[in-house]
Design brief:
- This protein is α/β, with parallel strands linked by helices.
- The chain has one domain (15-218): HUPs (Rossmann fold, 3-Layer(aba) Sandwich), CATH 3.40.50.
- The chain is built from 9 helices and 5 strands, in the order αααβαβαβαβαβαα.
- The protein has helices spanning 3-8, 18-42, 45-51, 73-87, 101-112, 132-137, 158-167, 179-182, 192-215; strands at 64-68, 93-97, 120-123, 149-152, 173-176.
- The protein has a 5-stranded parallel beta sheet, with helices on both faces.
- α2 packs across α9 (192-215), α3 packs across α9 and α4 crosses α5.
- It is elongated and about 70 Å long.
- The chain starts with a helix and ends with a helix.
């Protein structure tokens, strides 16, 4: 034992002390996380990171406008699409897909914004994104190979949602989100506040896409 160790009364830490290695690994992880946040918020890398997640399609004539369970603004936007369709001379059905009572709430929102109850169909059996194309296809009269669908969901959710519908054999699907038409958060994606606010949902979607890929759902 060295004189230094004897004088301090503490045992000398081996060259590769597990605690020291763990501390250094934690410091490296924190530094890498900070670097990633800086790059994604303060450089155009954040714009590319987000744009890859977006599926932007122009609305077109469809048989069904589908509201995926979640934010109520999706139901509001579906109602707007429905009203525009009626104005242009065609009448789609609106399918609200979610779990239990939440599906009923979304249907109420769509009805409050102008969709007649007779034109709303409710799917009460979808819990996650993977479920929607399966439970919607089980509705009476829905033909996923012939019918045309507009899928309404949140911006960064569009890629995963569309990949799920394609994986389940839907032949004619367009994606839609309220944000880029209503001047919402994506109106200026290069703004630093927008990058910061969208960092968590973008990261969550990347993780979800990887998980869905591993599960074989997309």
């Amino acid at each position: 034992m060295s004189e230094k160790s004897e004088s301090s009364g503490k045992p000398a830490c081996p060259r590769r002390c597990p605690l020291r290695r763990l501390t250094r690994a934690f410091q490296w992880a924190v530094n890498l996380l900070v670097l990633a946040v800086v790059l994604l918020v303060f450089t155009p890398l954040g714009d590319w990171y987000g744009s890859w997640l977006l599926r932007r399609d122009e609305p077109a004539r469809a048989d069904y406008i589908v509201v995926l369970g979640g934010d109520q603004t999706r139901a509001v936007e579906a109602a707007r699409l429905y009203r525009n369709a009626r104005r242009d001379g065609w009448t789609p059905k609106v399918i609200v897909s979610s779990k239990g009572e939440w599906a009923d709430r979304l249907a109420n929102v769509a009805a409050a914004y102008g969709v007649p109850r007779a034109d709303i169909r409710i799917d009460h059996d979808a819990t996650r994104t993977h479920d929607h194309p399966i439970t919607i296809a089980a509705l009476e009269g829905v033909d996923k190979t012939r019918d045309r669908f507009i899928i309404v969901t949140s911006p960064y959710h569009t890629r995963r949602a569309m990949d799920c519908f394609a994986h389940e054999g839907y032949a004619h699907c367009l994606s839609h989100s309220p944000d880029w038409e209503a001047g919402g958060p994506l109106a200026d994606p290069s703004d630093k506040k927008t990058r910061w606010a969208s960092l968590l949902p973008k990261t969550r979607e990347i993780v979800a896409l990887l998980y869905y890929r591993l599960r074989g759902w997309i």
